[in-house]
Structure formats: structure tokens, C-alpha cells
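Format notes (please read before filing issues)

Several people have asked whether sequences and C-alpha cells are stored in separate files. They are not. Every record keeps both together, in the order shown below: the sequence lines, then the C-alpha cell lines. Line labels are part of the format and must not be stripped during preprocessing.
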Amino acid sequence: MSSGITLSAGVRANLLSLQNTASLMQTTQNRLATGKKVNSALDNPLNFFTSSSLSARSSDLSGLLDSMSNGIQTIQAANNGLTAVTSLVQQLQATVSQARADSSAGTVTPGTALTLSGTTNTSNSANNKLTFTVANGVAVDIAVDGGVTAATLTGTATAAVDAGAGSINITSADLNGGAAVSVAIANGDTMAQAVTKINAALTSADANTKVSASLDSTNHLVLTSTSGNNITVADAAGNANTTTAELGLVNGASSTNGVVGTPLTNTAIAAAINNHASLNSQVKASVDSTNHLVLQNLTATSVGVKGLTSAAVTGKTTDTQTLAAGSGSGLSTVRQSLLTQFNALRTQIDQATGDSGYNGVNLLNGDSLKVNFNETGTSSINVQTKDSTGAAFAINSTNLGIAASTTGVFGDNTQLDTLSTTLTNSLTTLRTQASALGSSLSVVQTRQDFTKSMVNTLQTGADGLVLADTNQEGANLLALQTRQSLSTTALSLSAQADQAVLSLFG
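Then the structure lines:
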């Protein structure tokens, strides 16, 4: 609304100039006060929203840095645990070496002999082994049957199938539940192509088929059943001999059953047991004057045996016997002390791994740690101790294969050697896991450094769009103050011109 006051043109022009200067001074003073040349979208929409976007991403990435830092500490905690476990395993290995070097080991009086009441080995192709469970739960198998000779059916033709193409039926007790498998043979197929089609049909009908086709050195078709059961081949039409004849097979031809291996004699079984390196100095086998198999435990720990009854060798896993432990500790004072040290150190392995967690995550227990590297979660790393198959792998004495030891182990040099090998393998496993954790730690640290650089870049870019140049704004304010002073003087001169009319009334 107009004030009703009339100003001369000169006064109004100088007034407007003074008002503009005051507005500019206010803007400049605001920039100096806030340090920004763009304080809202009204100042510069493009710069304001671009800077806000860059600042937001910088803030998101800054938040991830804390997660990365926690991830690094978690991995380092796990690595500390691995270092401790590695040291403990090395001490275990030293303990075993000291025990092995002690030549004053005690002696064990063999346990009561188990003499089988019968003399016949009743094992067969399906039940054909003895399994001895010795120290540390190690299972040792001894074959007691000759196995099965495969059944085969061989053709006579060697050329391509050039006439009478059709289908054949292949039948065997261990194929497709005994049902015939039909195979289509095309006119013009070579023998090799026929073999390919037969194997494809057999596998399709029965993924676990024991029947297969091949060519011998003279290009004859050979059908083989590893189970030893008959193989029968017939023309699918049932009343023709065209396709089977082209393959060199007589329609309705059948193989001869494979030969089941002859069960080993008691003497042969005893020799196999005594000659097996893992049973040497642990189990003794012999045959008495009446051909009975005699088994005796040479250690101070009982030995389980699967595959025999008190009467005979059967090869069945459901038939079990126990060889009585021998008497006496079999340990010298030195070895007994080292055994106690060994089991005490082994206990510390599980305690060390259990104490290797950080912020609720223990990688040595098989826990998984996910560390995100960007604000959307599309870039990350999952850290977890894994075995060779990629499955989660907890670091503990059980998974490392280190069982609590016994007097039987420390009293037997052969078992001590086996235990030493186990510990060596455990050290290899620990070094592999440490290498994997080290690689993951390097990745997280690299991404942490990268994220810090990105945060700095984003923030610098955001600030460059909105921050004011304080030197320039200071110079602007000084100039505006000068302009304001001049504008005030000019306004005063304009007003004096208007006041000259008063002299006419003097």
C-alpha cells in the first residue's frame, strides 16, 4: 500500500540503491555467519540438492566404517585364537615326540585270546570284511572274501547297423528293479553310437545301474554287470532277430552269472591281519592246530571287531565281538606324565577357541560374519571358517582329529607315530584357516581404507557446491559497506536539493 508520501526522483533512486546495498550486505553477512553460499534450495536448487545427496551418501558410508571396524576386530580375535591353538598343538606334538623318544616304555600282557569255535568262513560278496576299531576310534578293514567276477555278454558284429534297425530289451536283476530297459537303435548307427545309446538308456532307467556297454579292442559290443548277475538281451519285437543280430547278439541271449570269490581261509585271514601296518603290535592273529582262528589284543585298550561271531567269520557288520584288553599300563613314569600333559593341553584347545569371540561372534565356532561395504548392501563379504567342501568348520579338538589319548596309545610307538601324523595334519588345517582369515582381514581393511577415501571425496564434493569463500565474502562486505556509506551521502545530497525550496519562504 502506498504511504501517500511523494518522493522526488533523485531521492527515490538513491533510496532504492541503499535498499539494494542493505540486502546484499545481509546476504553476505549470512554467508559469513554460516560459511555457506547455498543455505537453501532458494539459493541454488541444483547445488543444494546435489550437495545434499552427496552428503547423505557420505553419511551412510561413514556409518559402515564402524561395522568394518568391528569386523576387523572380530577377525583379529579369531586369528588370536588360531595362534593360541596352533601353539597348543605344537606343544602336543612336542609331548608326543618326547614320549616317542622315551625307551623305557612299560609292557602290556596280551589280553585273553578269542578262539572261534568253528573253522568255516561264511562271508560272501555282500558281507566280506572284518573291521577292527583300535585306538582313537580308527577303523581298519580286512577283506575276507574274494569279491565277485563281473558277468559279461559279448557280441560278434563289428560293423555299423545297416539293416533292421529297431529296439532291444536289456534285462538284469540289478538293473531297473529287474524290469527290461528298451534301447532304440537307428539304421546306420555305428557300434560306438549304439554303445552311447545303450549307456544313456541304462543310466536314464536306473541312475545306480551296475550294467554298462563298451567296445572291446576288436570293436565288439560288450555288456557288463559288475554285480555278477545275468544280462539278457532280446529283440523288442519278441519275434525277430534283426536288431540283436546287427549288434552281433543272439536274440534272447543271456550271460553267465559272475563268479563269487572264494572266502579266504583262516590262515589267509590271519596273515592279512598280521601284515596290516595299522594292526601291527595291536592285534595278533593265528590258527591253532585244529584250524580255528585265534585273535588276541596286544594293547591295554579293548578292541572291537565287526564281521565275526564267537563261532566263525561272517563278514557281517551286525556281528560284533570285543578283544579283551591286556593287563598293565604299558607306560613308564615318563610316558605317564607326558600322557597327563597331553590331555591337559588338549583341553586348552577347546577353551581357547571358546574365548576367541568378539561382540557375540566367534568365527572359530563356525559363526558367520557379514561385513557390508556399500550403503545398499550389494557389496559385502561373508567371513567364516570352512572345510575343503565349503561347509562351516568349527575349530576344536574333535574337528582337528585330536582325541583324548590313552595309556594304550602312549605305550605303543606305532600309535604314537600315528598320533604325531594326526597333529601334523591338524597344524596344516590351522595354517590353512589362518591364511583364509588373513585374506578376509586384508579385504576388509582394504575396503575400510577405500571407504574412508570415498567419504572424504563425497564430503569435499558436497562442500564445494555450497561452501562460501570467506575471503571473497569479506571483501564483498567491505565493498558493500563503502557503497552503503556513499549511498547514504548521495541520499542526503538529494534531500538537500529538495530542501532548497524552503529558502523561498525565508
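For reference, the curators noted about this record: The CA atoms of residues 10 and 190 lie 113 Å apart. The chain has a mean pLDDT of 83.
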